[in-house]
Every structure is written in C-alpha cells, then in structure tokens.
Sequence to fold (338 residues):
Amino acid sequence: MRVRESDSFKMQPPLRGPRRLLSAPAQALQKGDMRRLGRRRTSAIARRVNRRGGRSIEFRRRLYEERFDRLLEENGGVPTHPLELCDGFAIDRSGMMPLLDSMLAAGAELIDEYGAQSWEQQKPFLQNINPEDAVDRHPALLDFVTSSAMLAAVAPCFGYVPLLSGLVPRGVRLMESSTRFDPKAEGPWRESQLYNLDYHSSPTLYVVVALRDIGPDDGPLHFLGRAASRRVAEALDYGARGVPYRLSDEQVHALVDESEVNRFSEPAGTVLLIESSACFHFGSRRPGNDRYQMQYAFVSPVRNDFLELWLPQRVYPAAASDPDLRRLALDRSLLALG
Fold:
C-alpha cells in the first residue's frame, strides 16, 4: 500500500542477530504461498523458527484460564450474552455491539477521505484504503475491537488472549472492493477471488464489519463453515506439496453443496467473526456497487510463516494506563502484568 506523506506511526523493525541469517532461505520457502515444500511442512518449520513466541502463548493462556473474567470486568464489564462462534463463525445483526456507532463513523470519514483512489497494485479488485496512522487519528477503530464484548467472543477460538496482527494480514484494514481499477473485472477469478484458507497463523480470526450495506451483487464474502471446510481440506489434502493454495469453485463444489456456502451480504453495522484459517472463503467478484468493510485480524504469537525475519511490525498505540486486556490485545511484547 502506498504510504501517505502525512503518516506518523510506529513500526518495530525486524529482529536482529543470528536469526537474520535465516532470512534468505526463509524467503525462498515462503515464495509462492509456500509452494516449494507445501504449506503444511513449511508452516511446521516456521513455527519451529518462531518458537520463542511460545512464552507469550503460555502467559496469555494462563491469564485466560485464571483471570479472564477479571480482565473483562476491568476492560468495561463482563458481557452478559457474549457472541459465540458456531462452526467457525458468528454473525451479529443487532447493531448494538459496544462502540459500534463510533467505529462506523470513523470508517465513514476514512471512506470519504481515501475511497475511490488507487492505492494498491497487487489486487486491483480489492485494496486496503486505511492509512497506517488511522488508528492514531481515529481511536474508535481500536476501541471497538478491544472492547470486552469483542474480546470475549474472540478469545475462546484461541484458548488464550490473542494479538491484533501487526504483519500479514494487517490487524486493521478498511477494504474497498470495486471494478474501478480492474481491467479483468469479468474474470477469470484470481487471488482472493478464489477459495482459500489463511495460513499465516493458527488460528487466524477475522472481525468483519459492513460499513455500508452489502448487497448480493456487491461481491460479498462467501465462506464455508468449519465442518464443510474440513471435508474439502481432507479430500484434496489441502496444504500438501503440489496442492494449490487457491481452489476453484469446481473443486470445492464437487465436495460440498451450494447450500453450504454462506454469504456476508448484510446491512451496514452487521458484524461477522470468522476463523479464516479454518473456513474456506473468497470475495470481491465483480461488485455492482463499491463494497466497504472494516476488517480486523487476530493471530497467534507463534506465526506459521517467516515474515518476522524481514518485515517490520505495526506497533499499536497502547498506554500503561490502559486496561490490561486491551494492552494484551495490542502489545505483542507484553509478558507480565503489573
């Protein structure tokens, strides 16, 4: 994404020391969605390289098991009816999620400021129009996703307090899908327009919020539940060497019925939680109207890739006076609480 000259935000540089010597071979393994050895084998190697993050998982799991209700209470209160994932996803259509209105207002301002412009070249049909300093200028973006209601829904998928991603996928994105810059808007479908599972972290969980109404012809996100996705993955040996990362409709629908495909075609303010590492998904196919959704990504401290070796990570604004639960979600370096 092109960097705006006005951006002023914090990035943590890649780790220094002997591990940096692994960067060249790791990039070779990472290339082409880990095609050389297959995602399954390559991810196992990456988790070994990233194993120091296991300390963070242990710390976060202990807090989740022993103090989670207290952390929720200190962060604004324990939700009385937390949103629960079923079959890998959950949808809230109430429009009553805490701090939702403020987040929607911030999203609307960002669309007015950055929408309908060319920011990315890799995917002309889908681009993140969110500048990196947006979370600094619009605190509501982080206030919403770090609320007790949201973290109470997200954490059970992990079994510990997860992190808002600072790498790929970006933790906070405002996704614009349109045909405006796409010379192949009628197809053939490619990249994220094809079925796939996210592999950067296990789990990866997206919080997706419709910022404007998303109609059935606006390129909505299509996804399978966890059970149907498991059938596809097992039948195709997905993740093995030689098995493509992106799957065609024909490959998937030979194994699942069309009725098992869910579509995030919803009014503005609808919130979707989806375990994108376990639920096959695609989107952005020839939207009739521009599609806008805020997309948050929660990940594990131990990644399934090597990106930490050479890419800087986003450092989110978190103060020592913030509630501990918010700090845990935003600060990947945190290994103790006061």
